[in-house]
Model the fold of this input.
Amino acid sequence: MAFPPADTAATATAPARTLGPGDHVFLVDGSSFVYRAYFQSMNQDAKYNYRSDGLPTGALRLFCTKIYQFLLDGAVDITPTHLAIVFDKAEETFRNAIYAEYKATRKAAPDDLVPQFPLMRAAVRAFGLEPVEQAGYEADDVIATYAVEAARAGADALIISADKDLMQLVTDRIQFYDFESGARGRPGYRPERKIGIPEVIDYFGVPPEKVVEVQALVGDPSDNVPGVPGIGVKTAAQLITEFGDLEQLLARLDEIKQPKRRETLAANAEQARVSRQLVSLDIAVAVDQPLDAARLGPLDARRLLAFTRAMELNTLTKRVAEASGIDAESVEPDPALRAKGRGTSEARGQVGSMVTGYSRNRSPVAGRTRRRQPTPRAANGAPGRALGGRATSSAGPSPRRRGQRRRRSRSRRPTASRPQRRQCAPSRSTRRRPRSSPTSSGLTRSSPKPPRPAGSALR
Done:
């Protein structure tokens, strides 16, 4: 598929018309997307996960590949007219004011993922889009607001995420899509899923409008939402089906036949109410960026190629070049992002102003911190000459190369000239007889074992 030429007046932030029937809005949970891309990249060869200067790019590579796929082919036979990539703002939200321990148990992001967060936003801009995030709210709230707005305008919305909290939004016009991840047949593989109302009922045991009632009872360990101890999805679905919602359930606790369950619900009633507030999505966020601004326009392939070349995303660069008919070599890598040289301090610090927490001494292969190797010197102290007198580069051979040379030199050395290791006499308890010495039975160790007498038993 070839893209039309980019028009300077037509961009993704300049809507051609208002949102309405016939439009298909793709709402991507960018924060969830990034983590999935990272952990999927960890199952692939490490050489694809780092730029030549050591900058981690594995998650970025898969993130960009999937965004390009959405633009090129859509998803589940749907071609988007709007595409919004929504991220969490790196700060507390209104939920932390409700419950101070909200998400308090989450682990810090992996070290190799941290420097890729700002690059994700740069990638979205390279695609001609503007990353969406709103102070004080989570990405889920912004997605919920956009989805409801699209449905009210008569458009269809497809939420692209793995977060089950968003299933509460599913309607005839709002659907949930979890794309395929991992390698088929390997641990962690997840097939593609398109989730509508029947699938939500199958998962939660209740329709989408009752999902928050079930989640209030079950809680969510990943977000540290407490819920009610001992109440699982199946029990919660039975209770909500019988009583209607959480408040009706708590008001009619005397109708619950199981004494222990009744006591548990009574003791954790307020905790359940708080949990319901935490899992309920806000559908009326005053988002700074209007949804109409997410309408897709012609792709500026040169701008995208400048980014992919700077990030050394070679496969994606080839795909974009072939689809657009542009010679990739004719496009200069983005000078603000490109690596100036392999392993140089200038290259490793090139994105320092953009990336926070990026280690300047990262290995481009395994992401491990490397120790600087001392330059080999001759007896007179002159650099660039190894101890054996062989000329080397100023940096000297690598530790692995030196080890190989030592092993080869030992194997070539005559046996008589090899120094004999000094051997300590073994203690009486650990002393062993030589192989050729006779044992107490009169046999040497090289002699065959005597036949076992007939009728003897194993001990």
